[in-house]
Amino acid sequence: MHNKADYIIQKLGLQKHPEGGYFKETYRSNKNVFVEDLDGKRNFSTCIYFLITNEAYSAFHKVSQDEIWHFYEGSCIHLHLISPDGTFRMQKIGNAWNAGELPQFVVPAQTWFAAEVIQTKAYALVGCTVSPGFDFKDFQLADKKQLLEEYPEHEQIIDRLTR
């Protein structure tokens, strides 16, 4: 792994995430809201640090809420999205605005998505904000076989970015 990534993981106290990469929750609001669609209370908002590398990509998953990605430093990320209707989109997340990168991007609720660092031996540090707040009850890691059955037209990217 990249020396700077190792330093950031240690300095920020990041832990391995089930989807891949490393994370640490940095904020969870003290107030709750009842969300009927989610069958219960959720915090108003949550936020994490999230770091990925070439080896530790973020595998396809979805959450029940919108998720906002904020780019902090490192290499450009390719964020791959498959909407519920099967539409595929790739968005570059980074600071090279002239190259089509965005420093902030919202992944809509119930969208399958995965993220990878494209540059070799590189990392990216981002923040992810979820509102209403994240709860693992609202998280679903993709099953490769099931996702391929549902979206066979995206076989190449699904095969590459699921575990």
From TrEMBL:
Species: Psychroflexus salis
Highest taxon in the source lineage: Bacteria
Domain (DUF985) ranges: 7-142
Protein name: DUF985 domain-containing protein
High-level lineage: Bacteria, Pseudomonadati, Bacteroidota, Flavobacteriia, Flavobacteriales
Pfam family, one: Cupin_5
